Amino acid sequence: MTISLYAASVPVFKQMLNSVDGILAKAEEHAIVKKIDPDALLQARLFPDMFPLIRQVQVAADFARGVSARLAGVEVPKFEDDQKTFADLHELIAKTLGFIDSVTPEQIDGHEDRVIVTRQGTPKERNFSGQSYLLTYGLPQFFFHVTTAYALLRHNGVEVGKRDFMGQY
């Protein structure tokens, strides 16, 4: 049995973005209950040279949109990375999910060999087939940022666990 490129991408992005949304809701509640400035969580980093929570969520959303769009052969929607609050991050996730919901299996499946070029025109330019792009670049990047967002919140005392990370499946 084979799995389609669509099945390996869009539903996975949706599941995990919804889990990030839920984890962020728990973080908001944690900040209220513990009387913590929300920025202490939103700007949290595991190490000084890493992105803070806000940027981890932004990049995860960027990858979900970008990978879905490139696999579908449509233009990647550009969203401003100007989020500053939990509400802003919830809105970014909702907009990202709205776009992803517009991508159909017919736009992706059967295009596993579609050429996808990253960092075009730079020394880091790389050519991928659609399948290779998803499996060796897009999903690992997406999961790195989702996992880091989870780890940042867990490290800062937000009571989340594996069930929260996994979301609804």
Protein structure class:
mainly alpha
Mean pLDDT: 96
Q: Strand percentage, roughly?
A: under 5%
- H/E series: HHHHHEEHH
Name the overall outline.
globular
Structure in words:
The relative contact order is 0.22. α3 (53-72) packs parallel to α4 (86-102). This protein has 169 residues and is mainly alpha-helical. Strands 1-2 form a two-stranded antiparallel ribbon. The protein has one domain: Four Helix Bundle (Hemerythrin (Met), subunit A). A hairpin with a 7-residue loop joins β1 (115-118) and β2. 60% of the residues lie in helices and 5% in strands.
Summary?
The chain has helices at 10-33, 38-42, 53-72, 86-102, 105-108, 130-155, 162-166, and strands spanning 115-118, 126-129.
Features of the shown structure:
mainly alpha; two-stranded antiparallel sheet; Four Helix Bundle (Hemerythrin (Met), subunit A)
List the helices and strands and how they pair.
Elements: H1 10-33, H2 38-42, H3 53-72, H4 86-102, H5 105-108, E1 115-118, E2 126-129, H6 130-155, H7 162-166
